[in-house]
Amino acid sequence: MGVVIIDGTTVRSFVNDVAAFQKSVDEAFASLDLNNDGVLSRSELRRAFESMRLIESHFGVDVATPPEELTKLYDSIFAKFDCDKSGSVDHEEFKEEIKNILLAIADGLGSNPIQMALEDGDKNLLKQAADLEASKINSN
Known about the structure:
This protein is of the alpha+beta class. It has helices at residues 8-16, 18-32, 42-52, 67-81, 91-109, 125-139, and strands at 2-6, 39-40, 57-58, 61-62, 89-90, 114-118. A hairpin with a 2-residue loop joins strand 3 (57-58) and strand 4. Helix 1 (8-16) crosses helix 6 (125-139) and helix 3 packs across helix 4 (67-81).
């Protein structure tokens, strides 16, 4: 288990580092595209969000949400990612929506640092932002 500290500047810097951000998005997309068809289906994207347990828990405490309500929530998330309404999420749609989410997080954090406790081997994008920032500090 490790702890990283990030703020809005850390997250924004990560998004603006085109190479690092692209590499992270490519890896995330590949890990979610279970059938390797180059697009994310509704079920692939739902599986990803279910694994993050963003909706099923509130500050780490499990919340009982009726299945039909969960389906509506996941459908609305999918609709947000599926910009062209093709029924699947291509790599560019995924990248743009992840960018929008991270920039919204950066705006929300502003200059207020937060601590994140992470499991070893965690590859979430916020950790990658913190790792990028740490590598810049260590190289100076």
